[in-house]
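Long-time lurker. I teach an intro course on protein structure, and each term I like to show students one example going from raw sequence to a predicted 3D structure in token notation. This year I'd like something fresh instead of my usual example. Would anyone be willing to generate the tokens for the chain below so I can use it in lecture? Attribution to the forum is fine with me.
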Amino acid sequence: MKKILILDTGKEWGGGTNSLLELLKRIDKTKYHFTALFYNNYKKGDESDIKSEIEKLGVEFLILEQRTQPVIAKTAKELLRLLFFFSRQLKRYSVFLIDYQFRIKRNAEKISELLKNLRIDLFYMNNQPSSNLEGIIASKMTGVSALQHSRIEATLNSFEVKAVNLWLKKMICVSEGVKNSFVRQGIDKSKCVVVHNGIAIETVPNASRQDIRKMWGISDENILIGAVGSLIKRKRINDLIEAFAELYSKFKIQNSKFKIMVIGDGTERENLQKEVLEKRLQDKVVFTGFQSDAISYINALDILVMASEKEGLPRVILEAMLMGKPVIACDIAGPSELIVDGETGFLVPVGQTKAIANAMLSLTKDSALRDQMGEKAKERVTRNFPVEKYANSVNKIFEELINNDIHKIT
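-- Reply from a regular --
Happy to contribute to a lecture. Here you go:
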């Protein structure tokens, strides 16, 4: 039985977490023995955590404790930020060098010891090269083949590009857009293989649409527009609120039944709530916090909006499509490969709140259009993005890397 070590350096539950768990549910555990190495035992709402969910699948769970960086490192970072205020690139690279000396190298040494002690055959990293650089270096130190699963676009520095090209065997990209982004930055195209995320087609909501709406005071007559995900800056939930304010102010009399539901939590929640108050939309916008049963909440929506400026291949869009919901999203890597513009939803430019408002208007005033787009979305996700296809593709890459047959991966 071959041994695979999984590395996840994340701090919170997200789509990449769910996709990893879906993979581990379906991968052949008679052929592979998995050990999961995480930096944080992050929570799944109030009901569970990643350790519990990983162990339910029969996978050993380890934590790599992170030491607080010394005062000298923190002081050096602040000084470098001030010194290179005129150049974002220089500022980022100088801070990276401090991180490399005080965090990345130390983590790489610890990971390399684990790789040797556990006699690992394949090292599988679940994020993107910048976040997993210490893993790439540990692979180089030990000679253990490393596979990166890149789930989002990321900006790499010259050292990280070199590390990927020299020391990674392969990099799975969740979309063509993510692959193209890395190739433009100098990553060897032959290193990259695209495997789209998938979703279990048999998935059904645990709670009914009516129950979710009733819980939050949303009537059947309300047209419910929702956003789902971590409340962080790159998700640009504020664009949805601004677009909704514009839509509501223009069509208040005819369309007072519009409501917004923001499903998720994060560092931007307080700022978003302040913006809602400033725009006097507090009776129109509901913040639910993190919900582990996201699919039931998505099923309660009429329209999903994703205003993110950067993604990979968003699982939440797959879930909305499966539930037969039209999606409005920005025309970026990931969403542009899921949504057929004008057929299963609408693609809009990043930051263009008027375009978001116009797309919402088209869908809110025409229930037949919502139904038609939702049906086509469900057909598309069922046909093209089943989770079995995703799991089988990753499994094939595992086999070929372990058998040192990487040339067959295309």
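Some talking points for your students: The domain at 2-198+387-408 is CATH 3.40.50.2000 (Rossmann fold). The chain has two domains: 2-198+387-408, 209-384.
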